[in-house]
Amino acid sequence: MQKLIVILILFLSFSSCKSSKRAKNKRQKTTKIITKKSNVIEEETSISNNKTIPSKKIITKPESIIKYAKQFEGVRYKWGGTSKSGMDCSGLIFESFREHDIILPRISRDMAKKGKKVILKNVVKGDLLFFKTGNRRNAINHVGLIVDIRDNNIEFIHATSGKGVITSWLNEAYWLKAFYEARRIL
């Protein structure tokens, strides 16, 4: 009788290990739900057996656009490019907004005609910065997306011909001199 109880206990302990292992191996997947009226994206976590567990993380549309743009950091520069194989400055902005159902013109000087002009001290994450760079200082030819603002310094993501998709600070001498205007699309 005692042997039977011991065997039963061993059997139950081995079978419980197996089921807990299976539970740990369930893959989790994050999906996004975009509520267009409020510009809020709620992330939900789903487990492989089709159960959905809502998380408490709420991401604004500007934050989601920034997150999408940042996935291109390090991508090489390619004039007219809009993918991970190569990207130019307006392609980066165009694709980041298009992914969120906001269609902008493809060229930076045309993008600068959209949205609302914002004075620099009032910019927020997700606003666009426009520049007149190089030997073409009479026309807007560069655009970046504001990703952070710290200590009155603005960090923006953009694509440069020399370094590809990078983040820079507006207070850098080159960018501050080339800065033309900021615009809010969202």
Please sum up the structure shown:
The chain has helices at 2-24, 61-70, 89-98, 108-111, 173-178, and strands spanning 28-35, 40-47, 51-60, 82-83, 86-87, 116-118, 128-131, 142-150, 153-160, 164-169, 179-184. By secondary structure, the protein is an alpha+beta fold. The protein has a domain at 61-184: endopeptidase fold (from Nostoc punctiforme) (Alpha-Beta Complex).
Question: What does it look like?
Answer:
This is NlpC/P60 domain-containing protein. Residues 59-186 form the NlpC/P60 domain. It contains 5 helices and 11 strands. Mean pLDDT is 81; it is low at 11-38. It has helices at residues 2-24, 61-70, 89-98, 108-111, 173-178; strands at 28-35, 40-47, 51-60, 82-83, 86-87, 116-118, 128-131, 142-150, 153-160, 164-169, 179-184. 24% of the residues are buried. The chain has a domain at 61-184: endopeptidase fold (from Nostoc punctiforme) (Alpha-Beta Complex), CATH 3.90.1720. The longest helix is centred in the N-terminal third of the chain and has 23 residues, at 2-24. Helix 2 packs across helix 3 (89-98). The N and C termini lie far apart (74 Å). With 186 residues, the protein is of the alpha+beta class. It is elongated and about 95 Å long. 28% of the residues lie in helices and 35% in strands.
